[in-house]
Write a structure and sequence with these properties.
Helices cover 47% and strands 15% of the residues. The protein is elongated.
Length: 142
Amino acid sequence: MTEKRVVWTNPDGSVSVLTPILGVCEKVWRKDIPMGVNPIETDTDHMPKDRLFRAAWKASADGCTECPVKAKEVAHALRRAKRAEEFAPHDEAIAKRLPGAEETAEAARQQIRDKYAQVQLQIDACQTTNELRAALKTCGVA
């Protein structure tokens, strides 16, 4: 079942999505739309199915789509965050300077670097947001 949505591009380039409440007249919900924007009425069939690349959405004449260029930036940010998460326990071992732990931790960190270097190359090669989703699955993000 499709539901109505109203989308518009904000001055900063982000996209806002308004979900009108059934039974509430357009005059009432229009007050929630900022002046100076061009709202587009659409339905959920013309919206991305998930919010993974929400920061890469762009309003278009028929609804809302994902910009592959912006989505690639989002994918790299997600990759870096996941890499940092995997680095954390090894960073702690290095910070504590326990004898013998530094070498083991640094070896583990290098494996993580190598893994995410491959993911970075995969992301760079992607042409579509579906390809980006697949690349992010390889490192457990999507």
